[in-house]
Amino acid sequence: MEMQPNPDTISPVRGCDTVTYIKPTVKNPNIIVGDFTYFSDTDFERHVLHHYDFIGDRLVIGKFCQIASGVRFIMNGANHQMNAASTYPFYIMEGWTEMPPAADDLPLKGDTIVGNDVWIGQNATILPGVRIGDGAIIGLGSIVGHDVEPYTIVAGNPAKVIRKRFDDELIGLLEKLRWWDRSIGEIQRLIPLLTDSDLTRVKKSIIKILEQNG
Hints:
Largest sheet: 7 strands, mixed
Oligomer: single chain
Strand order of the largest sheet: 1-3-6-9-12-14-15
Strand content: 15-25%
Number of domains: 2
CATH superfamily of the largest domain: Hexapeptide repeat proteins
Number of strands: 15
CATH class of the largest domain: Mainly Beta
Distance between the termini: 33 Å
Helix content: 10-25%
Shape: globular
CATH topology of the largest domain: UDP N-Acetylglucosamine Acyltransferase, domain 1
Number of helices: 3
């Protein structure tokens, strides 16, 4: 019987224990990661910083993402109150009796959301509340503080748009295809299309698949 890809494998590259599928390693219920998303390192949760239970924000990452070593996700716990005389967080320090400020007084940005098939380059930093669309590419060392549109390349500090990966027609077709939500068998059959650099042929193939699926 032919071996199938298993999203619950921790080390999916034979002979290499520094590439890990993230989903089976995560214990924090506020970190949600899709199947086959990998990290080019170990102990992914150590790279999710200032993620405090009392805030309740989530890091949600889709399927088939590629996250390089040194990538960090900065969560909302890193933010301090800025609309008062002091930014010091008395309420989290032992011995101080002050209650936390109201949520409206803290610069909370909400959940951090990463789409599917996103490539995040080495040592990039993703700031709180950012939403990164499907198929985006984040350049090495980038500091991402704003949302990134699907199939868009960004880089720099602060990260700025370099270009769209494809024209609007192909981006729309890929978003409709949503290949990452298909069965392993279907994805296996789609790999020649997903790795084809003839984008005109890719467009025609996706249109045909979508028509067949109704």
